[in-house]
Write a structure and sequence with these properties.
Elements: H1 11-14, H2 20-42, E1 46-49, E2 52-53, E3 57-58, E4 61-64, H3 71-112, H4 125-132, H5 136-163, H6 169-199, H7 207-243
Antiparallel strand pairs: 1-4, 2-3
């Protein structure tokens, strides 16, 4: 009887499949990196509006459009910290910071290439430089402040979670952001308006202007962080009911 070679084992069966926790972590990391990159790229555009607030009158608000995306990192940091712990949250923050640094290097390389002018519908050298060249210092200041602020936020989230024994989700979610964003707003504003211009021999803004600008940015972040608090509960419900994840208990310091 002729010998027959056994069929090779199925590759799909041999490969380990990631579990639900791994898949959810992967998607949360992808969302986090996307939010940070878009916040820095969109930050080149400034906006201003003057809403009427009862009891206060008209208040002028000025900031970058990156602020529309950046608060998503607050929400995602809290959810990752809740279900994957401080180590998992720090890992995502470091990955996002590294990818933002890589994006900065690739944008710098693209700026260095000579542009082909005269093709309808394509960017001119001046337009390309206006968009990507003018925002490079803000980009650097933003990612440095992000990393420092994110690491502080993660530590404070864990502190409040231990302090309350895992209760009062709103306190650790909002409280950690309220404190960490003071630091984030001050660092990004000080670097962009004071430290970087001084290092480059350019005129630097006076400290009073820097502090006023940082305070305006902080108040806007604070309002957005408070508004996002219900989404923290919604995200917890989605991860618990949709994927069966269970929040981790408070971690030791």
């Amino acid at each position: 009887m002729p010998e027959t070679n056994p069929a090779p084992p199925s590759t799909a069966a041999a490969e380990p499949r990631p579990d639900v926790r791994q898949l959810v972590y992967l998607w949360l990391a992808a969302l986090f990196v996307t939010a940070l990159l878009l916040a820095n790229v969109l930050g080149v555009k400034l906006f201003a509006f003057t809403p009427e607030i009862p009891g206060f009158g008209a208040i002028r608000i000025e900031h970058t459009t990156g602020m529309l995306v950046f608060p998503l990192t607050f929400l995602l940091t809290d959810l990752v910290n809740e279900y994957y712990g401080q180590r998992g949250a720090r890992r995502i923050a470091l990955i996002a910071f590294t990818m933002a640094g890589l994006a900065f290097a690739l944008i710098a390389a693209a700026r260095a290439l000579p542009i082909l002018e005269g093709i309808p519908g394509t960017a001119t050298a001046s337009a390309f430089e206006t968009i990507f060249g003018s925002s490079q210092l803000m980009y650097l200041a933003s990612i440095v402040a992000f990393l420092l602020g994110a690491l502080l936020d993660i530590a404070l989230f864990g502190f409040f979670k231990r302090l309350t024994g895992g209760r009062l989700v709103w306190l650790r979610a909002t409280g950690s952001t309220v404190v960490s964003q003071v630091f984030d707003s001050l660092v990004v504003t000080w670097l962009f308006f004071r430290s970087f211009p001084q290092a480059l021999g350019q005129p630097a803004a006076d400290p009073g202007f820097v502090l006023r600008t940082a305070a305006t940015g902080y108040l806007l972040k604070l309002a957005i962080a408070i508004a996002l608090t219900p989404l923290v509960y919604a995200g917890r419900a989605l991860l618990a009911r949709g994927f069966g994840l269970v929040p981790l208990p408070p971690e030791r310091a």
